[in-house]
Write a structure and sequence with these properties.
With about 190 residues, this protein is mainly beta. The protein folds into two domains: about 120 residues, 2-Layer Sandwich (Alpha-Beta Plaits), CATH 3.30.70.940; about 45 residues. The protein is about 15% helix and about 35% strand.
Length: about 190
């Protein structure tokens, strides 16, 4: 059970505590994120299910709904040697990991997501891109160019190379212009 210690809730954002349990990702059935999160809380397991606002247009009105930021996943803290309380939650299919061993998620990654959700800024799911990955520019003056994604001082850059000459040129690009090569991204 999660208890309070020295007036602060255990695992409160940005407040690490000694002996903190690691975060793990539980895979859940489609559209069962809220149900699983509720059951985890009811069992005293700290959970994190980030969401974002999405506008749905109906024939007669517009409706704003909360959508899970990571569909099919609920983050939770638990002892990996005692995972039955998590695996027996309605809607939970399994734990993300290697083989039968769940893989912990670094605390700083969860805290970054939590900070983005709490910032009040417009957030949305985005395709996973890594520095060094081949990307295609979809918008802007470089639309149609392919290159390699780079990060210089926090700015996204497109690197285009002439392999024969072993020379490259880079241009700063807006992050929203970029998509991974070979992956179709459907509009949200």
């Amino acid at each position: 059970m999660i208890e309070e210690q020295k007036g602060l809730p255990l695992g409160a954002p940005g407040i690490p505590y000694p002996g903190a349990l690691p975060w793990f990702a539980a895979r859940v059935r489609s559209n069962h994120e809220r149900t699983a999160a509720s059951h985890l809380r009811g069992r005293g397991i700290q959970e994190f299910t980030p969401s974002y606002k999405s506008e749905r247009i109906r024939s007669d009105r517009r409706k704003e709904i909360d959508q899970p930021l990571f569909p099919g996943y609920v983050f939770c803290r638990f002892n990996p040697n005692d995972r039955l309380p998590v695996l027996s939650v309605p809607g939970v299919v399994g734990l993300v990991g290697f083989g039968k061993t769940p893989a912990p998620i670094p605390e700083h990654e969860i805290e970054r997501i939590r900070a983005m959700v709490q910032s009040g800024l417009l957030i949305r799911p985005w395709p996973f891109l890594q520095v060094g990955q081949n990307v295609l520019i979809e918008h802007g003056p470089l639309a149609g160019f392919e290159g390699i994604l780079d990060d210089v001082k926090g700015q996204c850059r497109l690197v285009v190379s002439i392999h024969l000459l072993r020379r490259s040129v880079s241009a700063e690009v807006d992050r929203s212009w970029v998509r991974p090569v070979g992956q179709c991204i459907s509009p949200i």
